[in-house]
Amino acid sequence: MRRITLIIGLLLAIGCGKAPSAAPPAEPRIVVCATVYPLADVVRQVGGEYVRVDWILDLGDPMAGFSMSENERHRLTGVDLLVCNGLGAEAWAMQTIASLSETGKVVSLDTMRISRTAPPAGALWLDPLIVREFALLLAERFSARMPARGEYFRARAQALATDLDSATRGASKGRVQVIIPNTMFDPLLDRFGVAGALVDVDPLRLRSIDTDRLRARARKDQIKAIVLPFDTPPGTVAEIEAQTGLRAYLIDQLGLPQYPEHSGYLEILQYNLAQLRELRAL
Questions:
Q1: What is the mean pLDDT of the chain?
Q2: Are residues 180 and 69 part of one domain?
Q3: Which of 39, 98, 126, 185 could form a disulfide with 34 if both were Cys (CB 3.0 to 4.6 A apart)?
Q4: How many domains in the chain?
Q5: How many helices (H) and strands (E) does the chain have?
Q6: CA 110, 113, 119, 123 torsion-angle sign
C-alpha cells in the first residue's frame, strides 16, 4: 500500500511540474480606420470580433475646416483598410487617402456603382441604400483577407442589409422642399424625395444679412422648413426659427457612441427618418 501511495505521489508531482499547455494564438484582427463614426459602426457590425476599428470624426467635430493631429494621421495610415466618403468631404485627409489608395487599402463610398446616381456632394453614408451596398462590399474585402471567416462576414453584412431594408420600408418619398445651409445632407434628402433649396450660410455664424436671405428664399418658394446639423446649439436653432419664420429640423450626420439614440448607424438612420417624417407633416 505504501508503495502504491509513493507511486501516485510521484506521478502527481510530475504532473504538477508540467507547464500548462499554451492557448492557441489569437487570430489577428483586421485593423480598420474610418474617417467618420457612422462608417466605423458599419465596419464593426460586419467585421464583428475579427476587426479592430477606429474613427476620426464624430458628433461635435467640424466636417469643414478640420485639421488632423499627428496622432490622428498615424491612426489613418497604420491600417489594413481605410474607409471614407470621398467627393472631397475629407479634404483634411486627401493626401493620406491618395497615398493609401495606391496600395489598395481604401474603400471610398463615391467609387461604388450605386453612388453614380447620388448627388455630386455631401455625406454619402447618410443614404442607407449606399451603406447597404457598402456593407456587402466590406464582407467581400474582409473575406479576401480571412477566407476561413467569409461565411461569418457575409452573414453579418446580410443581417445589417435586412435591418436597413426594414428601417426604410414605407419611408415616404413624395417631393417636398426645404432650405439647406450646405450640401452635406443631399444624399439623404435626395434618396427620400426632399428637395434642398441651397442658401449658403453658416448656422453658427449667422449675420443679419443671412437671415434676410433665408427669409427671402422661404417667401419666394413658399418653403416652411430648414434642415440643420444635429449639433447646432439649441439657442441658435431658436434664433433661426424666430428670425426667419422657418421650422428647423435637425439631421445627425456623425453620431456618437456615448449617445444611446445616436450610438450606431441604424439608430442614426431611424432618428433622421423620424425628422423627415415630421418635416413632411408640417
A1: 90
A2: no
A3: 39
A4: 2
A5: 10, 8
A6: negative
Residue-wise pLDDT for 195-231, tens only, equals 999 999 999 888 999 999 999 999 999 999 999 999 9
Q: SS3 of 21, please?
A: coil
Per DSSP, the three-state class of 33 is strand
Report CA dihedral (131, 111, 55, 27) to the nearest 10 degrees: 80
DSSP per position, 147-193: GGGHHHHHHHHHHHHHHHHHHHTT-----EEEEESSSTTHHHHHHTT
The pTM of the full predicted model, rounded to 2 decimals, is: 0.89
Residues 209 and 140 in one domain: no
Q: Does residue 147 share a domain with residue 76?
A: yes
Last residue of a domain, one of 116, 136, 168: 168
Q: Mark whether 65 and 139 lie in a shared domain.
A: yes
Cα 145–147–148 angle (5° rounding)?
Answer: 130
Q: Which amino acid is at 71?
A: N
Q: Tell me, what amino acid is at 261?
A: E
Query: Do 199 and 241 sit in the same domain of this protein?
Result: yes
- CA–CA distance, 114 with 128 (Å, rounded to integer): 11
Give the list of residues 6+ apart from residue 220 with CB closer than 8 angstroms, or none: none
> Which of 176, 224, 174, 182 shows the shortest CA–CA distance to 199?
182
Domain containing 251 — which CATH number? Answer: 3.40.50.1980
Which range of residues forms the domain containing residue 268? 176-281
User: pLDDT per residue over 43-58, tens digit each?
Assistant: 999 999 999 999 999 9
